[in-house]
Amino acid sequence: MNAMRDGGDLVRWAEPNTIALEDDWAEHAVLAALGGSTPPDCAGVPLLRSCDPDRTARPLLDVLIDGKREYRKHCDRCSTNAQPNHRLWVPSGASVVELVCCNHCRRVLSYEFSGLVWR
User: Fold this and answer.
1) What is the pLDDT of residues 27-53, one digit of tens each?
2) CB 3.0-4.6 Å disulfide test: which of 66, 80, 84, 104 passes with 100?
3) What pTM was estimated for this model as a whole?
4) Residue 92 pairs with which residues in a beta bridge?
5) Which region holds residue 29: left if phi is over 0, alpha if psi is between -120 and 50, else beta?
6) Rounded Cα distance, 86 and 20, in Å
7) Which residues are within 8 A (CB) of 37 and not within 5 positions of it... i.e. 6 or more apart?
8) Whole-angstrom Cα distance, residue 36 to residue 4?
9) DSSP designation for 118
10) Whole-angstrom Cα distance, residue 62 to residue 105?
11) How sure is the predictor about 83, in pLDDT bands with cuts at 50, 70 and 90?
12) How many whole angstroms separate alpha carbon 47 and alpha carbon 62?
């Protein structure tokens, strides 16, 4: 299997979420996450990347198996401290980016783009 496809292959259910990249704020957050560093022991491994620059990318398969969620203090889309608790996984090549949103941003994205699959 091609490493560039592995992230999307592991979370095929999240494919409709790529439409969220048409939202400028969401696109900016996702691109920033993709620009983050890759842990040395994870080269070539599909990763779940956080939009929070203080968080380290984690192997996607590990996240899928353990199911743990990291607590977040701010919305990745609007940057407010609005207790974000809605997670949108956006497949992006070999990685998947987790966009964590507040209630307002979830409503905005869901209104603008039908068919999003939230975690």
Assistant:
1) 999 999 999 888 888 888 899 999 988
2) 84
3) 0.89
4) 95
5) alpha
6) 14
7) 57
8) 17
9) B
10) 28
11) confident
12) 9
